[in-house]
Amino acid sequence: MTEQTARRVAVITGASSGIGKATARALLEQGWHVIAHGRDAARSEAAAEELRAAAAPGAKLDMVRGDLALLSDVARLANEIAGLTDRVHVLLNNAGGTRADLVITPEGNEATFAGNHLGHFLLTERLLPLLRKAAAESPAGTVRIVNTSSAGHLASPPLDWDDLQYTRDWQSGRVYCLVKLYNVLHARELAKRLAPEGIIANAMHPGTIGSNFANHCEPGMKAYMESQDLRPPEEGADTLIWLATAPEAGQQSGLYFHKREPNPMSDQAQDDTAAQRLWEESEKLLAKAGY
Length: 291
Hints:
The chain is α/β, with parallel strands linked by helices. About 45% of the residues lie in helices and about 15% in strands. It has helices at about 5, 20-30, 40-55, 70-85, 110-135, 170-195, 220-225, 235-245, 270-290, and strands spanning about 10, 35-40, 60-65, 90-95, 145-150, 200-205, 255-260, 260.
């Protein structure tokens, strides 16, 4: 086995700052090949320099850039990743955020929905061949997908299949809670579909973390965030790193974690019919966009 095939590979979205960068650093310190995604050019360049300096001998970092709210960018990112590795052991769908105003992307999607859910849905779909290749040659439970969600999913409005992107009565905070519910449902459906191949999929809540998340919030949410006891990114990253690497984290799939422990999900998040319907509706949106 060559060094390249022996080294485990992780793809981390939203890794130019916050918990994504802290997770990337921890995996590089353990000798992983980390493919880190960022959106902002300057922030990504600075993060890459910092992360390479922290990497253990034999570790490798590749930084890729793109806007997850744009499906065209996501498709390009998936192709770039496939050019960097032929296998992925861990996919951390970590990037997330909210908007102060309703924004419709040039492709016709609501930006919070696209950036938090639909972009990750497409990226995961495009990277499944690389995850399956890793799973075929790895012990069961060691190839994993983790979606960074939020306790906000507990406050999600009721699912409306006629307005999946919540554009009719758009409210920043409520849309954010809705897409965090989608993150949990996506992980649960992945867990069900990929179980025969030994691939684990879970969701997690990092806690209330001090990062650049609040920079893009509407004033009310920003004030709320600033009033909280914000924890350092490393604390939020702990569960993400644990879900990616710990042997015991490979024994349970389709769950929602906080502080390394399974946590209660909302009733909506436990709805298997809704998880399957969200998958089908997401596929329809991708097909409509040509993906």
